Amino acid sequence: MMVREIMTTEVVAVQESDMLLDAAMIFARSSLRHLPVLRGKKVGGIITERDLKRYAPGLLSGVTSEQYQQVMETTSISRVMAQNIHTLRPDQPVVEAVDLLYSHRIGCLPVVENGELAGIVTTTDMLGLMARLLRENKLAGAGTLRRS
């Protein structure tokens, strides 16, 4: 099975020049936890909801709500995003995605094709695949999974 078969292709992404408030609003209004960060059309990094939560308290301790708002509106995502990230190609085996997610303890992997963002694979995608394979009894000796 290849990455292209399980990746999410309708990806919400932000630009590295966008502000922290832009990412915070996306996280608040959706169930997303990871956002690829683009440098033009190329993947430049990832920002996660966790990154935002970790960054804000250290930067914002002892500030007023007005100062907090100003920081969120004027601090670019590039200050907080992870830049040295792992990526996948659509033609890679899914097992390589699993290995990267597990060994690096990360929650998502952008999928890049011809230098541009083509999709994303998350741990949620992997759990969905595992559930499907268990239901289809394709994981030997794994038993049956029932939806509740």
Ordered list of secondary-structure elements with their pairings:
Layout: E1 14-15, H1 20-29, E2 34-39, E3 42-48, H2 49-60, H3 65-74, H4 94-104, E4 108-113, E5 116-122, H5 123-135
Parallel strand pairs: 1-2
Antiparallel strand pairs: 2-3, 4-5
Structure at a glance:
This protein is α+β, with helices and mostly antiparallel strands and 148 residues long. It has helices spanning 20-29, 49-60, 65-74, 94-104, 123-135; strands spanning 14-15, 34-39, 42-48, 108-113, 116-122.
Please identify which CATH superfamily we are dealing with: CBS-domain
Taken together, the total number of domains comes to 1
Q: Specify the structural class.
A: alpha+beta
Output the CATH class name.
Alpha Beta
Quaternary class: single chain
Q: Which fold does the CATH topology refer to?
A: CBS-domain
Could you give the distance between the termini?
Answer: 27 Å
Question: Any overview of this molecule?
Answer:
It is a single chain. The chain has 148 residues and is α+β, with helices and mostly antiparallel strands. It has one domain: CBS-domain, CATH 3.10.580. Helices cover 38% and strands 19% of the residues. The protein contains 5 helices and 5 strands, in the order βαββαααββα. The chain has helices at residues 20-29, 49-60, 65-74, 94-104, 123-135, and strands spanning 14-15, 34-39, 42-48, 108-113, 116-122. The strands form 2 sheets. A 3-stranded mixed beta sheet has the order 1-2-3. Strands 4-5 form a two-stranded antiparallel ribbon. The two termini are 27 Å apart.
